[in-house]
Structures are given as C-alpha cells and as structure tokens.
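Re: [ENG-882] Designed sequences occasionally contain unexpected residues at chain ends

Forwarding the minimal case from QA. Structure tokens:
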C-alpha cells in the first residue's frame, strides 16, 4: 500500500510532465510543418515574380498601344513582391497574410487582363518566347495553387491542435500563435489565369 501511494505521488506528476512535453513537441512539429508548407509557396511565388518581367518584356514590343495594361502588371507584381517580402520578414501573421493575398489577387487580375489583351495579337501568340513563358507561368500557377492548399491544410491541423484541450494549455503557456490561412480575396482570383497560346 505504501509503495502504491509513493508511486502515485511521484509517478502521476512525472506522467503529467511527460504528457506536457509530448504535447509541446507535437505543437512544435505542426508549426514547423505549416512553416515548411509556406516555404513551398514562397519558392513558387519567387519563380512567378521572376517570370512576369520577362513576359512583359516580350509582350512590350507587340503591345505598344497597351502600355497601361503592361504598367498595371508590373505595378501589381511589385506590390505582390513587397507584400511577400514583408511577410518573410515579419512572420505569417494574419494581417501580413491578408496583405499578401490581396496583392496576389490584384496580380492575378492584371495578368488575366494582359492575357486577354495578348489574345488579340496573333504575332504575339505565335512568338516562341511568349509561348514558353506562358507555359512556365501556367505551370507555376498550378504549383502555387497546390502549395497553397498544402499550406492551408497544415495550418488547419496546427490551429486545431493548438485550440484543442489540453494542447491549448501548453500553447498558451508557450505562446504558440494561431497561423493564418492563405486565402485569395476574390473568387475570380482563385483560379490560375487561363493560358491558351497554341
């Protein structure tokens, strides 16, 4: 009986400590998973930001009368790049993620307008450089969509674990902040720009 009482007195706190350590480690693993998922988006966004100036440069020679459209694409690209850069510096807070989503939505809209204008220029549609860039952009857009879905799934798992009891106690003690989803603002921006140059 004495051994049982001693085992309970020392064993129960030890089990609670081990359980708390397990919950903490699970939260850390889930946080790292959603951060890694965002890094996959990060790679694709950088790739997209590098493609857009090349696309605009090829189109510029053909679209002399569409200067406003080209400037809008470059301005939207620069805004999205700055929002992306700010997110990398300040962490994945909800406000920074919303600014990135809004900037990406605007970029998608301006790219869509550029592609619609480019459809009216047969010489541009036939340009091999333009076709290659459009193919690359389309592939990148698909990768961004897949990476965004994987990131949002990882965020959902992390936030669910963070908000569930007893993990919420550990999360509160160690200040695990909620992760923000990466959701595009407008429904029209939820789809990759349609590319049909062939």
């Amino acid at each position: 009986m004495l051994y049982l009482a001693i085992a309970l007195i020392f064993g129960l706190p030890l089990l609670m400590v081990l359980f708390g350590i397990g919950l903490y480690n699970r939260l850390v693993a889930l946080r790292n998973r959603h951060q890694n998922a965002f890094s996959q988006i990060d790679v694709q966004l950088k790739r997209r930001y590098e493609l857009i100036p090349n696309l605009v440069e090829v189109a510029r020679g053909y679209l002399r009368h569409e200067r406003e459209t080209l400037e809008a694409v470059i301005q939207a690209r620069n805004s999205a790049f700055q929002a992306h850069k700010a997110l990398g510096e300040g962490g994945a807070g909800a406000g920074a993620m919303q600014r990135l989503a809004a900037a990406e939505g605007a970029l998608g809209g301006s790219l869509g307008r550029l592609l619609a204008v480019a459809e009216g220029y047969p010489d541009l549609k036939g340009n091999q450089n333009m076709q290659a860039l459009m193919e690359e952009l389309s592939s990148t857009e698909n990768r961004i969509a897949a990476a965004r879905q994987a990131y949002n799934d990882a965020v959902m798992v992390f936030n669910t674990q963070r908000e569930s009891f007893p993990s919420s106690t550990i999360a509160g003690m160690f200040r695990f902040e909620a992760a923000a989803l990466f959701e595009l603002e407008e429904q029209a921006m939820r789809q990759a720009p349609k590319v049909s140059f062939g």
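QA comment: On inspection the terminal residues look reasonable. Helices lie at 2-60, 67-90, 94-118, 122-126, 128-163, 167-173. Proposing we downgrade this to a documentation issue.
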